[in-house]
Each structure stands twice: as C-alpha cells, then as structure tokens.
From TrEMBL:
It is found in: Endomembrane system. It comes from Rhododendron simsii. It is a multi-pass membrane protein. One of its GO terms (cellular component) is membrane. InterPro entries: PPase-energised_H-pump. This is H(+)-exporting diphosphatase. The chain crosses the membrane at residues 12-31, 176-195, 215-242, 263-290, 405-426, 446-465, 485-506, 540-564, 624-646, 652-670. It comes from the Eukaryota. Keywords: Ion transport, Magnesium, Membrane, Translocase, Transmembrane, Transmembrane helix, Transport. Its EC number is 7.1.3.1.
Length: 847
C-alpha cells in the first residue's frame, strides 16, 4: 500500500482543526442573529394589532390575583411617567419599579414590557442608552424599541447576574488553580530533571539501543511546557464554554416564543460552538506542540512523545478542579434552592423569589458547562497522548514513519468532519415540530455520528496505515494488521454508543426503571432512595460488560495501542457529544430565565421539554465520559508499565496487592470528600435561604427583592475551599506511592482505583439521574400514572424532590469527578515514570 506523503498529513490535520474552528464561528454567527427583540405583528403605522384594552393581547398574560383593570391603570401610570424627559436612566428605572411595586414580582416585567410596547421611539430614547450601563454590549443587539423592556429585565435581573456570577467564580477559581499550575510545573521539572542528575548528555534510547536519545533534562523541560499548554487549553475550553452558554440561554428563551423547534436549533447550535471549539483547539494545540518539539528532538520520537504526555496531565489536572469546584458550587445552590423553595415554600423551580435561584443558574454554567468541557478535553488529550506514546515505540515510531505515527490525530481529524456533517442534520435538514421529537433528534445525532465515523475510520485506516506493522507488547513484539486497528477503534466507538443507550434506559422517565422509582415515592422518601440505589447498582452491569469486551478485543488485536485507540474511538465524536451535553444546561438556564422574566406558561413548557431531553442526553454523555475514562486509564496504565520497565504486574506479589487494595479504596475516600463538601455548602445555603424568607418582609409576596449575592458568595467560598482536599488526594497519591513504595505498588494502586472507580462512577451518575427524572416525571404529569403521583407539592412529589437533592451531588459532583480521578492518577504516573523507576521505592530500599 502506498501511504500518503508526510506533507499531505501535515496539511490534513491542521486543516481539519481549522475547519472545526470556522464551523464553530459560523454557528456562533447564526446564534447571534437571534436578536433580543419581540416579534410584534404591527401594521404599517406601528399601531398594535389583536388589541385587548388597547394593547397586544399576547403581551397581556393574565395572572392570578391581577385583573385587567388593575393592569391598565398601572400601565397608564408608567406610560405617563416615561413620557417625561428623563436624562437619568437609573431614575427612570426606579420610577417604573415604584409604580409596579404593588404587583407580584413575576408580573412586573410583563407589565413594563406591555406598557412600553406601544410608546413611540422618541419616548423610548432614554431606554436605548441602558445597554452601555448594563451587561456586556455583545448581549445588547437591539434592532427594535419594542423589545427594550424585556431586554432590560433579562440584562439587569437574570443575564447580568448569571454572567457576573459565573465569570467571577471562574476567575477566582483560576487564581487558585494558577498557583497550583505553576507549583506543579516546577515539581515536574525538578523530578524529571533529577532522573539523570540534570545531565545534558545524550543517552541510548530505551527501545532502540542503536540510537541516541535526548537527555532527561530535555524531557523535564518539554514535559513542563506541554503540561502548561494542556492546562491553559483546558482552562480556555471551560471558560469559552461558559461564555457561550451565558450568551445563548436568553436567545433560546426568546426563540421559544416562536416554537420548540426554533429554541432547539438555537440551543443546539450554541452547544455545537463549544463542541467544535474544544475538539478543534485540542487537536490543533497538540499538533502544533508536536511539530515545535520536533524541531529540537529530531529523530528522537521516543523522547518527543514522552514529553508530550504532559499535555494530557495539564488538561486533566485543570479538569479535576473544574469538575470538583464547579460541581460543589452548582449542587450546593441546587440543593438549597430545591429543599427550601419546593419542599418548604412550595414555589416553582427558578422562581425569582428564591434567593438561591441565581446561584443555581450560575452553577449550571460553571459546573455543567465549564467543568464538563474541561473534563472531556482531558479525556481527549489523554487518549491521544496514550496512543502516541505507545505508537512511538512501534515500528513506525522507530522507523520514523510520520503518517502512521499520526494515525490517532487523523482519527480525531476525521471525527471533526463527521460531527460537522452530523450537526447539519440537526440544524438544517430536519425540523423539530413537536416536543416529542426533541429526544429522538438528539439520539439520532449519536447514531448518525457513530455510523459515519465507522466509515471514516475505515477510510483513515486503509489510507494512513501500512498493511502490517509491529508494536511493543510488554517486552515482546506483536504484528498488527491495519484492519485489526480499525476494529479496535470501531469497538470503542460502538461500545460508547451502547453505554450511552443503556444509560438512557436507566435514567429516562420514558422507561420502566425510572417510572418504578417515581412510583416508590407513594410511600415516602425512604423507599424512593432504596429504589434509586438499586437502579444505580443494576445499571452498572451492561456498561461493564461493554467495556470488558472492548478491552479484550482491542488488547487481543493490538495490545495497549489497541486499547488506547479504542478509547480515542469512543471520544472521536466528541464535538457532537459536547454539543449535546452543553445543550442541556443551556436549555435549563433558558427555562430559568423564562420563569424569572414572568413569561407565559406555554413558553416555560417548551423550555422544560428541551431541558428534560437535555437531562437524558447529559446522562448519556456521562456514560461516554466514564466509559472512555476506563479505557484511557487502562491505556495510560499500559504506557506507564512500559515506561517503568515492568514486564509483569503480579497480583500475588505483596507490593502489588497492597497497592491494589488501597487503590480500590481511593474512589470511596474521594467520594466521601466531595459528598461532604456539597452537604456542608448546602447546609449553609439552606440556612441562608430560610433566613431570607423569614426576615425579609414581602419576599414571598414578591414585593421585595431577595439577596442573591449572599447565596452566590456561599457557593463560591465553599467550592473554592472544598475543592482543595480532593484535588490534593488525587495529585499527591501517585507521587507519594511512587516515591516511597515504588512502581510495583503504584501499578497496583492504579489498577485498584480503575476497577473500583468505574463501578462507583456509573452507579452514582445513574442513580442521581434516575432520581432527577423521577421528579420530573411526576411534575410533568404526562401520563395517567404520573398524574396519580402529582401534582407539584403532593407528598409523592416532595419525596421525589428529596431523592433528587440526594442524587444531585452523586450525578453532578462525585460521579463525574471519579472518571478524572482514575485518568489523572494514571497520566501523572506515566509522566513521572522515569523518576519512579530510578529513585522510587525508598521505604523498600531502606527496610
């Protein structure tokens, strides 16, 4: 077979990355075309049609306790007041609020919007200056004065607070994480540089003794640089994701007025911006780093790709703090808002009277968007690095065959193109016309991308790989055919889809497992908890079989390189997976804005339908993340064992077995820390929300404004403080074990944490997801069975809310963070493997 030239490969990979970035920008532009404006059916003279008491009937949405006469009287007062010449925007805003004060808070924005809609442009000039004094100008693309009152509400009450809170938290978190990043980078340099006493002399290569490799000091320097690159890219991925989400949520709310299809496209396109930016940036930065490092390393590919592993370590270490910190933030706010708001005060979700509602919306962005983006970027970087490290000691690594060596990057490049085509199916080729079509449309995305990717991988394998090659297999050489490596990637790809659909079966309220959990709420919260735990344990079975089969097939065909490629196969459609994952929190925030802005019940029903589908697909995304983490961790484990010079990991050896049993304990220790952190923060949040309801006169009536800032501060302080101990546990364990007990014990720790952590992560995520959707099943009341358990505020509903609040930290903090634990310890061990092999096991050397 004639392989494509190295020049063709050097063009294709960055070109695909650039295509992904350009496509994400196109999606951004399309989302930006959704203006924050009303759709007024006006005549040529500008007078309103479909009048009711002189105003557009769609702008007057009757509320309980407010009759049309009261509304018209208040409207007349506001119109009269605003027709005066105000030069001070704040004064104008205060006057409107004072006049509207006697009405319920959730009615005021509607009233202001309604009253101002009929005024002339000249009368509204004072309002047009508000954007410069409100939220960032990017949000204020106003082409119609009729939209200004609603825009003002969104900016000053919901979007501004959510954006400010999310940005403030991330900057605070990044300050702490930045200190860690610099300190750990210094640690990498010192540990790896000391392997050969900071010598600058070249040394014989480990796997090709006839060649000379660069000194260990070079590995120390370039590993440090790649670590910083990975960390910065991970932080950037999370931050951009958060910015995109806060930009898109109000636009999704406004598009929901036109129908569920328009809202779906806006939310999905916004998610696609994040998905393609992350996948393309991750690929491009990694490819550029490889080519820059090559300028120094030359033909020393063994040293080059050993140094590149720092990229995966940097990405995953930042993801750990993002997932843990963001998870603690969002779930503390969520639990506090639900327990007091829904259970005690019986007010709707996202009601603006709830003091924790802004903190809850902020949490959706910093946890479910920024944290999730950093997490999947870490998996993507680690699987690529694991595959490249193992490939560097294969025949095409030793013989310097660039195109076959870049096979993992070519698979990722093909993934970007496949996901681009798949996204067009969702946004351009098929129109969502009914609520029931939302979830199938998202699942079609997964199926289409998997089918197309299988074809794409076959093409890449046929073009980029020689018909046969040899790889390193624990001291032996194994001959691999190109079709065998294709099957390795494919088995990972399809195993991910199976895990995703099994996860959906156990977490979607369309199926019997969740409906059984909901039915158990008849007899209280205790039976709900029992059923939910049982569901989580049972949901582990099929995913573990899928992972086991993937490992067996891929290892049989191509040893650890096959396992690494199976992991990369599972993550090859990351752009689509991230788009679907980000779609959920964006829809959730859109519903929150609809509630706080007092929009009609019909619009809230549409955003709730989008959110419900997003919850299920988010659970599917967690299944992908956990499954890929297991494969990535095993591939990194294999690379570590190879780099550390271990030929056999003997479980019967005392050194290995003590590591095995301690490693199996670590996920429990880590989960205990994160669960306790959420509980402590939620306790403070509940007390604060109760205090405000009890001490602020008129808060329940809607005539007083809650103190949102205090609740945001509670979540911020708790998450920053509480993310440090779990992070230290994960980051320090490999260093302590490797230095004091040696590589054999460390290999046991890695194996134990992998086997234990995967089970707990799947169980925790699915249990929490089932409790969440059992609650939504009762609230929606879509079936006769669901209606017998409702309505909202009934005893079964309160029991379901309690189950949901227990499950929140399981599915959004502990569960997702565990997959980072098993990956991060493995990649950290790989990066420090030369040091552990040379200087590790101090205790066994002394005693």
């Amino acid at each position: 077979m004639v392989l494509p030239s190295d020049l063709a490969t050097e063009i294709v990979i960055p070109s695909c990355a650039v295509v992904g970035i350009v496509f994400s920008l196109v999606q951004w532009v399309l989302v930006s075309r959704v203006k924050l404006s009303s759709d007024l059916n006006s005549s040529g003279s500008g007078s309103p049609t479909n009048n009711k008491n002189g105003y557009n009937d769609y702008l007057i949405e009757e509320e309980e306790g407010i009759n049309d006469h009261d509304v018209v009287v208040k409207c007349a007062e506001i119109q009269s007041a605003i027709s005066e010449d105000f030069n001070d925007i704040a004064e104008c805003d205060r006057l409107v609020r004072r006049i509207a004060q006697p009405l319920k808070s959730i009615v005021r924005p509607k009233l202001v919007r309604m009253c101002l809609s009929g005024l002339s442009s000249a009368s509204l000039q004072v309002w047009s200056g508000l954007p410069s004094n409100a939220a960032p100008s990017a949000f204020m693309e106003i082409d119609n004065f009729d939209c200004i009152p609603f825009t003002i509400f969104l900016e000053t009450n919901a979007l501004g607070a959510t954006l400010e809170g999310a940005t403030s938290f991330l900057f605070t978190e990044y300050q702490y994480v930045g200190v860690f990043m610099i300190a750990f980078a210094i640690l990498i340099f010192l540990f790896l540089g000391s392997v050969e006493s900071f010598s600058t002399k070249s040394r014989p290569c480990t796997y090709n003794l006839h060649e000379m490799c660069k000194p260990a000091l070079a590995t120390a320097v370039f590993s440090t640089v790649s670590f910083l690159l990975g960390a910065i890219t991970s932080v950037l991925s999370g931050f951009l994701g958060m910015k995109i989400a806060t930009y898109a949520n109000a636009r999704t709310t406004l598009e929901a007025r036109k129908g569920v299809g328009k809202a779906f496209i806006t939310a999905f396109r916004s998610g696609a911006v994040m998905g393609f930016l992350l996948a393309a940036n991750g690929l491009l930065v990694l490819y550029i780093a490889i080519n820059l490092f090559k300028l120094y390393y030359g033909d020393d590919w063994e040293g080059l790709f050993e140094a590149i592993t720092g990229y995966g370590l940097g990405g995953s270490s930042m993801a750990l703090f993002g997932r843990v910190g963001g998870g603690i933030y969002t779930k503390a706010a969520d639990v506090g808002a639900d327990l007091v708001g829904k259970v005690e005060r019986n007010i709707p979700e996202d009601d603006p009277r709830n003091p924790a509602v802004i903190a809850d919306n902020v949490g959706d962005n910093v946890g479910d968007i920024a944290g999730m983006g950093s997490d999947l970027f870490g998996s993507y970087a680690e699987s690529s690095c694991a595959a490249l490290v193992v490939a560097s000691i294969s025949s095409f690594g030793i013989n310097h065959e660039f195109t076959p060596m870049c096979y993992p990057l070519l698979v990722s490049s093909m993934g970007i193109l496949v996901c681009l085509i798949t996204t067009l199916f969702a946004t351009n080729f098929f129109e969502i016309k009914a609520v029931k079509e939302i979830e199938p449309a998202l699942k079609k995305q997964l199926i289409i991308s998997t089918i197309l990717m299988t074809v794409g991988v076959a093409l890449v394998s046929w073009i980029a790989l020689p018909s046969s090659f040899t790889i390193f297999n624990f001291g032996a050489q194994k001959v691999v055919k190109n079709w065998q490596l294709f099957l390795c990637v494919s088995v990972g790809l399809w195993a991910g889809l199976i895990i995703g659909f099994v996860t959906e079966y156990y977490t979607s309220n369309a199926y019997s497992p969740v409906q059984d959990v909901a039915d158990s709420c008849r007899t209280g919260a205790a039976t709900n908890v029992i059923f939910g735990l049982a569901l989580g344990y049972k949901s582990v079975i099929i995913p573990i079989f899928a992972i086991a089969i993937s490992i067996f097939v891929s290892f049989s065909f191509a040893a650890m390189y096959g396992v690494a490629m199976a992991a990369l196969g599972m993550l090859s459609t990351i752009a689509t997976g991230l788009a679907i994952d980000a779609y959920g929190p964006i829809s959730d925030n859109a519903g929150g804005i609809a509630e706080m802005a007092g929009m009609s019940h019909k619009i809230r029903e549409r955003t709730d339908a989008l959110d419900a589908a997003g919850n299920t697909t988010a659970a599917i995304g967690k299944g992908f993340a956990i499954g890929s983490a297991a494969l990535v961790s095993l591939a990194l484990f294999g690379a570590f064992v190879s780099r550390a010079g271990i030929s056999v990991v003997n479980v019967l050896s005392p050194k290995v077995f003590i590591g095995l049993i301690v490693g199996a304990m670590l996920p429990y220790w880590f989960s205990a820390m994160t669960m306790k952190s959420v509980g402590s923060a939620a306790l403070k949040m509940v007390e604060e929300v109760r205090r405000q309801f009890n001490t602020i006169p008129g808060l329940m009536e809607g005539t007083a404004k809650p103190d949102y800032a205090t609740c945001v501060k509670i979540s911020t302080d708790a998450s920053i403080k509480e993310m440090i101990p779990p992070g230290a546990l994960v980051m320090l364990t490999p260093l302590i074990v490797g230095t004091l007990f040696g590589v054999e014990t460390l290999s046991g720790v890695l194996a134990g944490s992998l086997v234990s952590g995967v089970q707990i992560a799947i169980s925790a995520s699915n249990t929490g997801g089932a409790w969440d959707n059992a609650k939504k099943y009762i609230e929606a009341g879509a079936s006769e069975h669901a209606r017998t358990l409702g309505p909202k505020g009934s005893d079964p509903h309160k029991a379901a809310v309690i189950g949901d609040t227990i499950g929140d930290p399981l599915k959004d903090t502990s569960g997702p963070s565990l997959n980072i634990l098993i990956k991060l310890m493995a990649v950290e061990s790989l990066v420090f493997a030369p040091f552990f092999a040379t200087h590790g096991g101090l205790l066994f050397k002394i005693f």
